[in-house]
Amino acid sequence: MIQNVIDVVEFQTTSQSLFSKQTYYTIKGSDKQGNFEVQRRFKDFVALRNILVIQWPGCYVPSLPGKKLFNGNDVKTINDRKKFLHAFCQKLSQLPHLFQTEEVSQIFLRSKDEKIYKKLESIKSPSTQDLLEKYQTLFTDILNVEIDASTLKEIDNFADQVRNYSIKLKNIKKIIKDSVQSGRNYNNCLEEIIKTRLINFENLFVSSFVNSDASMLIFNRIKQELMETYQEKQVFNQNNIEILLDLIRLESKDCKIVLKQINDKINLENKVKSLENKIIELEKQLEKLNQGKVSFKNMIKQKSPEDSKKQVEQEISDIVKEIKQLTELIVLINKILALKERNRYENDKNQQFKEIMEILQQMELESIKIESQYWGYILNETNQLISKTQNQQQIECQTNME
């Protein structure tokens, strides 16, 4: 089986005018149709997700970073978006029913149209019948599975669990965000100490005790090597805890998506109730027509009582058909939520957390290794200086004794 591969590999910002910039993200990958490489703007991603949400009620559609009214093309925002757009694409590749749609595999990943977002926005919303037929075709494995009141209760409990989890995530997010900022402050201070303060300290104070011998000043003597090492290896400039912050941000967005999925079902249920009320109103209207009463509206339109009755009867028939299809769709969405989406959510959380911990462990070990090498270099230079100083003192002592 050919695996779907899709990555956001780089970005490019172009200036349209003095006050207008556009950022394009390069997407590369492959699927059963072959390789692809396209450039897409952030609004293209947004348009794609919007149409997927409309076409797949009750199903998981990966999240995107939030929109920004201003400064959407500054370096920090672009780098931040790139991470989350990459995560969006990665998750899409793991959801075949979304990835293989024309909207994703053809329009978004292969179309040469410069304004993809307009093409996606022009796609018509599916009818209830379209949705029902699509779900019946794709989710054949759960069509004959029976669900009861306890299953529906589990969905409600799942929603409550996600809501509570979302509240806790907000508190954790604040703590980790503060920790990330503390790490940045620490790195900035350490950089200032190493690049400036220690060198100035040696120049102002230590040099007066070494008879202006520059070879006796550690940081002055090796500052060029330290600068190069600092730049090349980003020593003490890593903040690996940011990985956890990204995880929490993704988790928070996924919570909102799950609640949106469940809300899709609730909205459909409310639509059924609204249509049922509409039938009651139409039946009352039909009863009046059968009694020979003609509404003022029909009098103006000069409709005969018979034509009016046929129109109302047809409208009732259409609504009854719509309610039947909506009811079947709701049953299917309940099955999807209970039998597929809940398990997918829980498994994804466990797997994602495990992967993040492994990455964080590797990065922390690498940071420790680089820091050890860095300080080891300074320690070695310091030991050489101490040895040199001791040798000079011994020579001076022997000279004095002679």
From TrEMBL:
GO terms for cellular component: early endosome; membrane; phagophore assembly site. GO terms for biological process: autophagy of mitochondrion; endocytic recycling; piecemeal microautophagy of the nucleus; protein transport; reticulophagy. It is found in: Membrane. The keyword Coiled coil applies. Keywords: Coiled coil, Lipid-binding, Membrane. Its main location: membrane. GO terms for molecular function: phosphatidylinositol binding. It comes from the Eukaryota. The keyword Acetylation does not apply. It is a peripheral membrane protein. Residues 258-362 form a coiled coil. Residues 3-115 form the PX domain. InterPro entries: PX_dom. This is PX domain-containing protein. It comes from Paramecium pentaurelia.
